[in-house]
Specification:
By secondary structure, the protein is an alpha/beta fold. The chain has helices spanning 8-15, 21-28, 40-54, 60-75, 86-98, 103-119, 129-137, and strands spanning 3-6, 33-37, 79-82, 122-126, 141-144. It has a single domain, classed as 5'-nuclease (Rossmann fold), CATH 3.40.50.
Length: 145
């Protein structure tokens, strides 16, 4: 079974219609395992709140609906969360030693690499060109959404 590790920007496209949403719908229709880092939930909600409170793109009802959909996917185990553990932090620091990368992106790459070492076939979904390049450089199979 294929496993996908999803960064926050790609995950956002599953719930908020934008370029790449149709591709995410196709990916999520597959019989596959979907994984995110647990702190991705915090970044996701923060980005969602920006669209609600700062830019006004989402009203309060839509904000709550999207948030509920994310939590339903997680509690229903459509999306599995991977915890930030010591090994993940150490690997993130090793990645940072090689290239500047944001703290959360370094943790996401580290978690994806850990998942790949456990599962083998992992596709890293992201919507950031720099992160895509780093994922490829680290030996992951990235897919730009």
């Amino acid at each position: 079974m294929i496993s996908y590790f999803i960064d926050t920007s790609a995950l956002f496209k599953r719930y908020v219609p934008e370029q790449g949403t149709e591709e995410m719908d196709i990916i999520f229709s597959q019989d596959a395992a979907f994984h995110i880092l647990d702190i991705t939930i915090v970044e996701f909600i923060s980005n969602l709140k920006i669209k609600n409170e700062i830019t006004g793109e989402l009203d309060e009802d839509l904000y709550k609906k999207i948030k509920s959909e994310l939590f339903a996917d997680i509690t229903g185990e459509k999306i599995k969360t991977e915890g930030v553990i010591s090994d993940t932090i150490i690997e993130a620091i090793n990645l940072l030693d090689k290239n500047y990368i944001t703290p959360l992106d370094s943790l996401q790459l580290a978690a994806a690499l850990k998942l790949q070492s456990e599962k083998g076939n992992v596709i890293f979904l992201c919507s950031d060109k720099k992160l895509f390049g780093l994922a490829e450089k680290c030996g992951l199979k990235p897919l730009f959404i």
